[in-house]
Specification:
Leucine-rich Repeat Variant; about 300 residues; mainly alpha; about 65% helix; 18 helices
């Protein structure tokens, strides 16, 4: 039996244990060093980010998160460009979770183009945590990522940044995004134009929803965005979609948007209820369920 590292060990002894051939010993030593709050462990723990064992790298990063201060920023910035993927990943991770006086946004933006898809994803998550709206344009561009996991992280980051910085964001970025070659950029742009509620988006969104050759997911979120416009033209188009759209997912979103618009605008309630009631015998059971739920909400809102 070997003596497992514990809080009673001196920092020097724990640092020596980071070189053990046993991965459990290395991971435990890394964890205990974080608990001891001894800054002498920062560089040895940083070197451990190259460990071949993922659990050891994770323990090292966890301890670094509790130890790293403003004076250690250059260590992490160098790590963003390190040749070892483990060092790059955890450096990007820590840049998002620790607070520094130096501007880290440009370094995290550069990591959105890393060769490793997991690093691109964690870069988006770190940009979300930093909360700087300057990251939105490069994040929108990153919606072209080939890996779905990265795109999900990017979308989550943009969503939070838009929510927290609505007054600082020019909708022109997303208006241009509607014309992008990548469907995921177009759908995200449509979604956030709805969130921003910018009236300039109405005509482009109507054009998008009318394009039957457009990606169905893009058209779905264009229908969502129209429901946020609170405009007669949007309302009439949503009724048309509920009544005659061939794509089930676009039609379902149109019904939801129509109902949400009526909930906010009492003058639309009578027409919306008539339209939604007309689908109660539809063969699409999902649409039927949405209709029943929306009618109940409209009735309760009276």
């Amino acid at each position: 039996m070997f003596d497992r590292p514990n809080i009673g060990w001196e920092s020097e002894q724990l640092i020596e244990a980071l070189s053990s051939r046993n991965c459990i010993t290395r991971a435990t030593a890394a964890e205990v060093l974080g608990s001891k709050k001894d800054r002498v462990a920062i560089k040895p723990l940083f070197r451990l980010l190259r460990d071949k064992d993922g659990s050891v790298r994770w323990r090292a990063a966890e301890s670094l998160e509790s130890l790293i201060g403003d004076e250690d920023i250059e260590l992490l910035l160098s790590g963003v460009k390190d040749e070892h993927e483990g060092v790059r990943f955890w450096s990007v991770y820590l840049l998002g979770r620790c607070r520094f006086s130096k501007d880290v946004v440009p370094y995290l933006i550069s990591a959105l183009k890393d060769d490793n898809h997991e690093i691109r994803a964690i870069a988006a998550q770190s940009l979300e945590l930093v909360g700087d709206e300057r990251a939105i344009p490069p994040l929108l561009e990153a919606m072209r990522d080939e890996w779905k996991g990265a795109r999900l992280s990017v979308f989550g980051a943009i969503k939070k940044l838009v929510s927290e910085n609505k007054n600082k964001i020019d909708a022109e970025l997303f208006l241009k995004g509607l014309e992008d070659d990548y469907p995921d950029v177009r759908f995200v742009s449509a979604f956030f134009l709805g969130e921003l509620g910018d009236s300039r988006a109405l005509t482009p969104l109507l054009d998008l929803i009318d394009d039957i050759n457009e990606d169905v997911n893009v058209r779905q979120w264009a229908a969502y965005a129209l429901g946020r416009m609170d405009d007669d033209r949007a309302f009439v188009r949503l009724i048309d979609l509920v009544n005659g759209e061939k794509s089930p997912i676009v039609r379902r979103m149109a019904l939801r948007s129509l109902g949400e618009m009526a909930l906010r605008n009492p003058e639309y309630v009578k027409q919306a209820e008539a339209c939604i009631t007309s689908v109660l015998e539809d063969e699409d059971v999902i649409l039927l369920g949405l209709a029943q739920g929306m009618l109940a909400r409209l009735q309760k809102n009276r």
